[in-house]
From TrEMBL:
GO terms for biological process: glycerol catabolic process. This is Dihydroxyacetone kinase subunit DhaK. PROSITE patterns: DHAK (PS51481). Residues 7-331 form the DhaK domain. NCBIfam families: dhaK1. GO terms for molecular function: glycerone kinase activity; phosphoenolpyruvate-glycerone phosphotransferase activity. Pfam families: Dak1. It is an enzyme of class 2 (transferase). InterPro entries: DhaK_1, DhaK_dom, Dihydroxyacetone_Kinase.
Amino acid sequence: MKKIINNPHDVVPEMVNGMVRSYPQIIEKIPGTEAVVRADKESMKGKVGIVSGGGSGHEPTHAGYVGKGMLSAAVCGQVFTSPTPDQIYAAIKAVDQGKGVFLVVKNYSGDVMNFDMAKDLAAMDNIEVKNIVVDDDIAVENSTFTQGRRGVAGTIFMHKILGAAAQEGASLDEIDALAKKVLPNIKTIAVALSAATNPEVGKPGFVLKEDEIEYGVGIHSEPGYRREKIKPSKELVEELVGKLNDEMHLDGNKKYACLVNGMGATPLMEQYIFANDVLNKLDEFKITPAFMKVGNYMTSIDMAGISLTLFEIQDDKWLDYLNYPVTTIGW
């Protein structure tokens, strides 16, 4: 294992310190935690707080999306490990403005359990908290850390939509209703060329042959649904868009947002080649995305691979929210 780190057990606190010291105008650390909150407190006044978080190793998710117009706070667990309830609760308290707090949780058993416990702690303090559990990964039904489908890169669209709505003054009930409408329209699928190496483990989560890929891998190196020999980008797109079409019934009369997401070790050159092939494939459905992002938005440390998210935009206001200006490190 070759990594630019010090002690493998210190990667999360040292990373968080590096982030807040590099961008003090955007985020600050909540004392006694590995959670970060907006530095711009004025932007949170009178608004519903939006909090997310999870295991580290997915940067810029989640701390990179804290800032005006997006998340109010994010909680950084140990690598690929859910943050503890007390740290999540500290983030809830830090953003509570008397209007309630909304939690965006990815569907992993530890995250769901710990965010629920934090929600209970907040209730004892009379802080009203609601949440959504994001399960956008269509690859497999149950996985290593999950009952049901996993929460992956499509979660970022949820952060963006809800953050903009909250910034515009939506109530907790309105944000809750919006999240429930948005969720079933976000779908993601991935392909990996190599696994992530957790610095505390020191070896890859799985090993693929030199000429092998795996479809449907999760963001913690969870198994996918098929391994086969590496193929050209166009053929990878055929597979992934085909699976998304089976799920979403793509329609040229509808609007879509598209996210091509690098998993950590995939060069932007390859991401743009893949994006070009995705757009060519969508042309066959007479679809031109109304919104598109390409880059490293939800990674898996140093995994080589790519994920593709499509989001059916059923309301023009959702597109306004996607385009809403934000002040964050990662968007």
